[in-house]
């Protein structure tokens, strides 16, 4: 379990949240949180620099498991000091179930 976690409602109330979706490309294209950037979990080790794009980065997947693993991995890496990684509990499926907007396609917006 990552050290930091946020609920869907808390994320939805954060207008300037930086969100990285660690699901596979086809999952992302089928529907994602508006503004979320896609970096699949399997590519996270090669994209650490791209994961530290803000002081606080929210990681999301389908239900919260893969994003929790990504948080744990990133928190153990050198070079991510100054970035806090927060897992989105409930993931994209929770986001959809709570009636939030979803974007389809390969672009964040």
Describe the structure.
The N and C termini lie far apart (29 Å). This protein has 109 residues and is α/β, with parallel strands linked by helices. It has one domain: 3-Layer(aba) Sandwich (Oxidized Rhodanese, domain 1). A 5-stranded parallel β-sheet has the order 1-5-4-2-3. The protein is built from 5 helices and 5 strands.
Fold blueprint:
Blueprint (H helix, E strand, L loop, with lengths): L4 E2 L1 H5 L6 E3 L3 H6 L6 E2 L9 H4 L4 E5 L4 H11 L8 E5 L2 H7 L12
Parallel strand pairs: 1-5, 2-3, 2-4, 4-5
CATH class: Alpha Beta
Number of alpha- plus pi-helical segments: 5
Largest sheet: 5 strands, parallel
Secondary-structure element sequence? EHEHEHEHEH
Mean pLDDT over the full residue set: 95
State the end-to-end distance.
Answer: 29 Å
- Assign the CATH topology: Oxidized Rhodanese, domain 1
Uncertain ranges: none
Indicate the CATH architecture: 3-Layer(aba) Sandwich
Based on Cα principal axes, name the global outline. Answer: globular
What is the count of distinct domains?
1
Helix-residue proportion: 25-40%
Q: What is the fourth-level CATH superfamily?
A: Rhodanese-like domain
Given helix and strand content, the structural type is alpha/beta
Q: What share of the residues does DSSP label as strand, in percent?
A: 15-25%
